[in-house]
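User: ok so my PI wants both of these folded by tonight, can you help

Assistant: No problem, let's get them done. Here's the first:
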Amino acid sequence: MDTLVSYQAQGPVARLTLDSPRNRNALSTQLVEQVHQGLTRASAESGVRVVVLGHTGGTFCAGADLSEASAGGSEDPAETAVHRARELTRMLRRILESRLPVIAAIDGHVRAGGLGLVGACDIAVAGPSSTFALTEARIGVAPSIISLTLLPKMTARAAGRYFVTGEKFGSAAAAAMGLITVAADDVAATVDELAAAIALGSPQGLAESKALTTAAILADFDRRAEQLTRRSAELFVSAEAREGMLAFLQKRPPDWVG
């Protein structure tokens, strides 16, 4: 099995690094599973107090792996879509429920489902060259599952705009709307400072303090997750989505009426 998420622990900091630059760290089944493995490993190390989720390459995360999502197979496409949607739902909840605070270290671009990953993290730091975009509507789907982590963080006006326009926006705008915590000139240095501050906390103090900030999000998450997961899967196997994904992969305009 290829290593798509590397793990390194040094003192109180565990670093999970998305390392699948060939597909811009897209959320493939294998990458999502390795994020789970990394979180499990970090939580088992008694000295670890904080997880830093970073990336290699110029993209933090491109969202769903469209080549995987659009591939045919012997399985029922609808059930396969539900399974993949549940993988994403499970990963986002895992970050929210983790007793360890998670910092997203973003020094590149974030698209679609990747924004849900950012929203699930407790702290997010992005560099000046980072851009963000919710492009789901352009391929015939919607940010269904990731709305569970984005809507509690983004302002209502920002969500109302960027959910439907698919426009790119930078780290300053992302900070202003609450999507990220800090727009930093030096991502690594800022993340190190934040991790050092977190490391001063006790395991119990950190876990209980984080739980206060995620309780309402988790309650709404659990209330709506199954409905949104199934809706996401339905959208991904629709005729419009198939056309949208093929058009994206073939680098052509989609033919919505065809």
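One down. Here's the second:
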Amino acid sequence: MTDRIRDYLARTAHDAPCLVMDLDRVRENYETFARAMPDTRVFYAIKANPAPEILALLADLGSCFDAASLREIEMAMQAGATADRISFSNTIKRERDIATAYRLGVRQYAFDCDAELEKIARSAPGSRVVCRLLCDGNGADWPLSKKFGCSAEMAARLMERAHALGLVAHGLAFHVGSQQPNPMMWDGALETCAELFRKLGERGIEMNLVNLGGGFPARYLRDVPEVDTYGQAINGSLKRHFGNRIPQTIIEPGRGMVGDAGAIRSEILLISQKDDNDPTRWVYLDIGKFGGLAETIDEAIRYPIRTDHDGDDLMPTILAGPTCDSVDVMYEKDPYLLPVSIEIGETVLIESTGAYTSTYAANGFNGFDPLKCVCV
């Protein structure tokens, strides 16, 4: 947690959970990505945290934006980004939203199947299209399923089809899984991209772009490599597989941009045990899965948790949320060790919660307000 967040929390009271974001840390993270990969354009994944202050800061710094919906496109433009700095990267789009984005000036669209390609051809004629490949997210804390992407063989056919439809067959995209701790996981996907570039080049289709996706991790409980390490690994793979014909590249950091720039202050509502002889206690917070901590599903993302009693004796603690839903339990399979001395009514700080919390929060489930986000 940064000093700016700590100072804000020390002088500000809230009667509900609150996410506090440090804009200086977001700026530092953007500059770190820019230095580590100077030949790669940054497209911030708006879905990670669309706070207007964050979008305005990044727009001012020169960032581009990865938008998953028409509303995210509008938010980026309201923050100062021009349409040429926005990619409509969701492969599942309403055709009328594609048409509206096209009228707004957006000219880059992602797809992974024939039907989506045909929508783009009809409603965004002449635009640049990027075909998303299936990719193994092995090792990622938040791996991706087969919901997005297609096989390499299908991608080659689709890009030929895009060319025939009058679209610009611009390039390929992939994603190695969110919170990817292995910098070498980009290598296999880049090898596949290079093979497709050569194959399609022989057919008269010269692609120009590789979208390296996201996957760059935030710091939670487990140590992860520095951004520079990822940059070196990816640049090495690009040289190895593309030789002297390295294409344009973009990255779409979300978690890596804002994850460690935020912390949530939460109140302990209840401490209990299920049996007088049970060595494990339950601690219920005023925030849970439905309040913004959805990534605790399967205990995938394990956030650092701080209390006013750190340093005291510890005991196993199951953490749960406040709602009347039995799945609203964050950590049960692998309970946290928290101080024995914590008490009802005290606060805990859940660190590195800047990404995928305020946007995952339910709007009014059980009558709880959405998670408030404050930028300092």
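The radius of gyration is 22 Å. The longest helix spans residues 186-202. Good luck tonight!
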